[in-house]
Each structure stands twice: as structure tokens, then as C-alpha cells.
Amino acid sequence: MLLRNAEILFNDRVSPELYHMGLLCPEIAARIQPGQFLMVRVQEGFDPLLRRPFAVHRIHHNDPPTSFEMLYRVVGRGTRLLADMQAAASLNLLGPLGSGFQAPEQDGLVLMVAGGIGIAPLPHLAETLVSSGFRGPFVLWFGGKTAADLVCVKHFQDLGFAVQLVTEDGGEGLQGLVTGHLEQWLSQQDELPKVMYSCGPYPMQRLVAEMAARLSIPSQLSMEALMGCGVGACLSCSLRCRPPEGAQDPHYANVCQHGPVFDGEEIVWD
Amino acid sequence: MANDSPISLAVELGPLKLKNPVMVASGTFGYGQEYAELVPPERLGAVVVKGISLEPRSGNPPPRIWETCGGMLNSIGLQNVGLRAFLEEKLPWLRPLSVPVIVNLFGNTVEEYRELATALDGQEGIDGLEINISCPNVKAGGMTFGSDPEMAFQVVSAVRSKTNLPVITKLTPNVTDITVIAKAVEDAGTDILSLINTVAGMAVDVQTRQPRLANVVGGLSGPAIKPIALRMVWQVVQASRVPVIGLGGIVSTEDALEFLIVGAQAVQVGTANFVNPGVTLEIIDGLEDYLRQQGLADINEIIGTLEVPRGPVGIGE
Ligand SMILES: Cc1cc2nc3c(=O)[nH]c(=O)nc-3n(C[C@H](O)[C@H](O)[C@H](O)COP(=O)(O)OP(=O)(O)OC[C@H]3O[C@@H](n4cnc5c(N)ncnc54)[C@H](O)[C@@H]3O)c2cc1C
Ligand SMILES: Cc1cc2nc3c(=O)[nH]c(=O)nc-3n(C[C@H](O)[C@H](O)[C@H](O)COP(=O)(O)O)c2cc1C
Ligand code: FES
To answer: What predicted TM-score, i.e. pTM, was given to this entire model?
Structure first.
């Protein structure tokens, strides 16, 4: 865990609500694993008070890596402040934090599912799997409200992913919700995925976990929670999970420490 | 040169001797290990661990926090690993470190406080107990121990009778006159007072018209509560004979100094750890710098030096 000031390399608006921010911070770039996250101090003062959690979107593959990107959606005060920041300014980061995605146990079909800003951590994962020799095939199901949500698709295609897009308004790809189409697609596959990686809104995550469980596919879901510290000190970021042997029920795991990536089987859904 | 003369930050709070007056507040620093990569616990005046109960507690359902203007609400629900796991899994890591470890404890009944004190007394590696009395007394219809002088007296007496460790009693600000509670727990034999715990509060989502916290109400902490905390520390310092630890909203050296000047002999830093994990180390260095600037050599020369220009002041608006 490091506490560092990173230099903002760029902060580009890529769709009405989405921004790409490039950050120069060699130590974090060299250490962070796919699915881990950073607690970002969006400004120096104390209002807004708390750091905001963000995934790493991509590492820039210079050797050794020195910089990386975040992809973020402007939803409130903190992200609005981020969006106003200019290149060359510095941003205080705490990380890498949490436990991220695990590589599949064997090569074979890898399925990634993203809903909206849930795409954020997946390119880092995809690049890591491809560069560490997994041959796939790789498939991404990516759903958004409108076509404006569907960013960085080409990047996945360049990595050899088959990308299936879904929008709620039908503006691009299939119309509806990712989970609706995915179920049908899975039922038509000869080979079941070796793993399902998923990041998106809670109801989507739940459906993905249930689908994976029905088909006995291991699932790894990146979950969200309101966070105070990001390091396991405050116990704010609890997610209800199945109690381990001998533990109490209800059992709450810290999303910031035990997660943000959870095995779908662990979670007790509301 | 005067600039290089040694500066002493050491303070003595009755039986508790600290190398500097900057401690971390319970529930905001885990069991010390969580931040150890950034904050070597040995640099701190003391580590106060997350509140411990006899049995493990699951805590409240999420959402458990909500950010407010300059503060945060929490309703963690006193989730903790319980006494046994604390002694077996958490304390062994802290024990070899040369930093005083203060165990924050709470119960649902006077009996539970007594049992905890008994179990913790004589454990190697524990240097003091901090009694959290901001908890509901299940035998008194859920009224908090800390809001009733008689119940507060009973809890502190129970702990006092079972331990020779330094006893700190942590006061809740959610009372009409905090000095009444302070005096009651002093009579019960507390060595030290710490204040304040969080200020009761709530927040509402106007879209759903639901409370932001699943528990509906929670405790406010962070810079938003500092003036309240400072005023209460000042009042308690006037009214009591035992040393006082001040906390509530401290985020900087200047904040810590305010508490020391009104008479706190040490401070605890809570929520600020989340925002700036290095804050305690910055405050320790900052206190030294301040003393140098003031031409002083000892932090005790600052404590309780509030200058009130025009005679005694009331608490009026
Ligand atoms: C592990 C993790 C990784 C994340 N990665 C990304 C990412 O890569 N890109 C991205 O756009 N967003 C990501 N998020 C969500 C992001 O943290 C929130 O959108 C952001 O905190 C909102 O801040 P705000 O001040 O703009 O919103 P406000 O609504 O004003 O924030 C108020 C409070 O709620 C918290 N909060 C609000 N929404 C969320 C949320 N969805 N999850 C957690 N806390 C929230 C804020 O941190 C703040 O404490 C991630 C969340 C988690 C838990
Ligand atoms: C997330 C959180 C958990 C806390 N847990 C405890 C606890 O277990 N026992 C206790 O006595 N106080 C607990 N507190 C209160 C703090 O120790 C402190 O009294 C309060 O937050 C005010 O200080 P601050 O403004 O510096 O945070 C907790 C506070 C927070 C924010
Ligand atoms: S955010 Fe503090 S424990 Fe997870």
C-alpha cells in the first residue's frame, strides 16, 4: 500500500459523462493487479471529506510501466471535482488496495460481463490475461443505457475479444439488458466458459452470479460499497457473505479488503 | 542553536505515560496492522484498537456510512472480532511493538463490562483500557450507559474493580451536561477521560425518502464536529480533576494544538486517518515545529494555557 502524489497526464472527456484520466505514478503502475483499486483524494481540503474508490482501467505498457488510466463516470461532487482537474496537476492516491481478479485455472473460453461504468477494471484484466499467455477464446458482453456508455470496445477487439453490445434503448447492439441476452447465448454454447468475470450494478451482478451458479461456472464479481478508509480499518464497506465455518450469521465481509472481487458463491444477495 | 535543542513531546496522564500526545481513535485505525505500511505504530503516542466485546459482533447491515458536509455518519454497529479472536489473532501482532496499546471495550450490560475487564487485566501487551460508554444498556431499555450518571458510574466501577490497568472512560457528547457524567465516572475511579465520541445524526435520500444509513441514525465524526468537541473538552477540563484526552474532528497540527491549549493532555485522531493516513505523523512533527517556533522545549508548556481575555465565560450563544 502506497500513498503517492501522481501527476495527471491527461483528463479527457470520452462521452457526455465519462472521462479518461492518465496518471503518472511508476510505483503504483508497477504493482497494481487487475481488479485492485485506489482511494483517490479528489481535492486537498476536507469537504468533500472522504477519498473515492476507483479501479485502474489500463496500465500503459512501457517497460517498466510508469503510468496508467482511470475511467470514471461523473455522478456527484467528487467526480465533478475530478472532471475539472487539468493535466500537470497532482492527485493523491492510496493503493493498490483490495484483492483483485484471479486468472482462470485453465485456458479456454473466458467470459467478461460489464454493465455501464462496470467496464472500468476489465481492460486491465483482459490485457493481463492475454499478455500472460491465455489464448481464450475471449468474449465480452457489454451493456449500457445508451451507445454513449459503450466505450473502449475497439480496445477489446484489438486484444482478440468477440464483443457483444447491448443497450437499453437499442441504440447500439441488441436491445435490453445484458443479463437477458447472455442467458440465451450461454445456452447455445458448446463450450461453457471456464470463468465469468463481471462488474456492474448490483442487480446485474446478482443475475450473473445466479446464472454462473446454475451452470457451475466459477464467477468473479467486482463489487461496490460505500467506503471510509479502503484499507480494512473502519468496517464501513460491508457486503453480506456466507459465514465461514463457525462464524456468525449474518457475516459481513469488507469489500475493500476481502474484495472488491468476490466469488459469486460467497455473496448472500438481498 | 536554539533550533536544534531537544524538544520533549512526552506527556503523563496519571498512570499512562506517552512519548507523544498523539494517539489514534478507536474504530478508525483497525488493530494497528491495517495502516502499518504507512504509519509505523511505534511512532504514535498510543494505539487505541477497535472496540471489543465479549462475543464477536456482526454489526449493522449496510449502508453503514454516509458523507456529510465536512464529516461522515457511521453506524458500523460495533462489529468486532470478539475478545477471544482479539487476544489470539490481533494482540500478538501488537504486543512486540514499543507502543502503548489501549483496548477499547464495550458491553450490553454492566456484567459484560466487568467480565471484559477481568479477561483483559494482566494480559501482556495491553497498557490501558478505554471504556466506551456510548452503548445501549439492554437491561435499561436500550438507554445508553453514557447518558445517565448512575449507569455510567456502575460501568466504570465494575471495570475499575477488576483491573489495575490505567482506565480511560470515553464520554459521549449526546448529553445535556457532559460535566455531570465526567464527575460520575471520576467518582467511580476512572484515571483518565477521553472525549468526544460521535455526535448522533442522520441523513435522508430525498429521491427514495429513505434514510442514508440502514440503521437510520448514526454517529457524526470528522472536522464538522470539532468545535463541539473542543467546547466539551474545555468544559470537562474545568470540571474534573483527572487528565483529559481530547478528540473529535482533528485533522491538523493546529486542531491538535487547540485541544492541548484548552487543557487536553493528549489527543486522538480518528476520521482524518481515512482522508490522510499520514496525518498523525504530520501532527507529531508539527507539534515539534510549533514548540520550536514558540521558543519552547516541552509540550507540557502548552497544555492548559488558554488565555481567556475577559474573565470567565458562559456557554451562551
Ligand atoms: C472498488 C470500487 C471501484 C470503483 N471503480 C470505479 C471506476 O473505475 N470508475 C468509476 O466511475 N467509478 C468507480 N467506482 C464508483 C465510484 O467510487 C463512485 O462513483 C464515486 O465514489 C462517486 O463519488 P462522487 O463524489 O462523485 O459521488 P457522490 O454520490 O457525491 O458521493 C457521495 C459518497 O458516496 C460514495 N459513492 C457514491 N457512489 C458510489 C459507488 N457507486 N460506489 C462506491 N461509493 C460510492 C462516494 O465515494 C462518497 O463517499 C468504484 C467503486 C468501488 C467501490
Ligand atoms: C467508522 C468509525 C468507527 C468507530 N468505532 C468506535 C469504537 O469501536 N469505539 C469507540 O469508542 N469509538 C468509535 N468511533 C468513534 C471515534 O473513536 C471518535 O470518537 C469519533 O470518530 C470522533 O473523532 P474524529 O472526528 O477524529 O473521528 C468510531 C468512529 C468511526 C468514524
Ligand atoms: S472501507 Fe474501511 S473497512 Fe473497507
So the answer is: 0.96
